[in-house]
Amino acid sequence: MPWHFQRIAAESGVRKITGVTGITNLISIKAHAQASDIKKRIEEALKRSAEVEANSIRVVVTDSSVRLEGKVHDWREREIVEKAAWSVPGVMTVDDRMTV
Questions:
Q1: Cα(78)–Cα(7) distance, rounded to whole angstroms?
Q2: How far is CA 5 from the centre of its chain?
Q3: Looking at residue 30, what is its pLDDT?
Q4: What b-and-e string marks burial along 55-71, b requiring 16 or more CB atoms within 10 Å of the CB?
Q5: Residue 25 located in a structural domain
């Protein structure tokens, strides 16, 4: 699976089955993009968002892992930035180091 939302959707679907008492989601995301492409896509998504001060966010990508640094105005903005990072195909982990 290349998308984080697919991983979460699969877990949500199984969680609703009668009799399921616990879930361990071991689905992994396959990275199909280069680190530079992932970084570019995240930065472009942040620039498109009217709710985010994109210049205050630093995106660091190593392989398929993303680290977000910088200062945001509130928790809502923080969530938007994190969702923008997860929305890029191939992202396996997001390390949110932003401050409010």
A1: 22
A2: 9
A3: 67
A4: eebebebeebebbbebe
A5: no
The token duo for 100 is 């409010």
pTM: 0.67
pLDDT digits (tens, 9 = 90+) for 23-32: 887 777 665 6
Q: How many structural domains comprise the chain?
A: 1
In DSSP terms, 58 is beta-bridged to: 69
Rounded CA-CA distance 100/85 in Å is 18
- One-letter amino acid for residue 34 of the chain: Q
**Residue 51 covered by a domain:** yes
pLDDT tens for each residue of 44-75:
988 888 778 888 899 999 988 999 999 999 99
CATH for 40: 3.30.1340.30
